[in-house]
What does this fold into?
Amino acid sequence: MLDFPDLDELAGNRHALRSQRTRDLLLEGMYRLALEKDFREITIQELLDRTGVARSTFYAHFRDKEDLLVAGYEKIGIPHTRVCEVSGDSRVVLDVSSWLFTATERHAELTTSFFSSPSQGIILVHLENILIIQVREHYRKQGLYDSNGLHGEVAVRCFVGALIGLWLWWVRHDYPSSANEMTEAFDSLMNNGTWPAAD
It folds into this structure.
């Protein structure tokens, strides 16, 4: 007996692909506009004119342009975990520093544009929230976070604060080291608890 594909499944796949293409088109349009002007000055109408997407289609996918910005971070994917040895013990760490530095290096021109503009505060708030959620969830999975206690949240905020502080320094100083070097230096201190060796 022949096995025919499910027509509903095929239609659903086509719809999902069309939906993803629309989202990608809007993200690309926003990125191109962000290279030309401040994020706050970009209007939805300007984005629609640039991409040819209908207003109703935009709002079927996103609440506003900040929602579109968050989707851009999500497009990068989520950080992976890896096992490393710390003082003879195996520890599962969230590879969030590599995720952030590598994605930034790939999109350095856009990152520089965002963080050279008056809108950098808006963009930074969304990035910080995404990092806090990811790190908090990882700590929960590892049994390091108690939602009723203070220590877990302090650990999350300290880790994310240190990562963002170093990342901002790197961006604002025009990427003086590679993403890999930044990741290794950050991880040696924050995940392994060892200071980088003196030059």
User: Anything to note?
Assistant: The radius of gyration is 20 Å. The chain has two domains: 7-63, 76-190. Residues 185 and 197 are 10 Å apart (CA to CA). Residues 7-36 form the longest helix (30 residues).
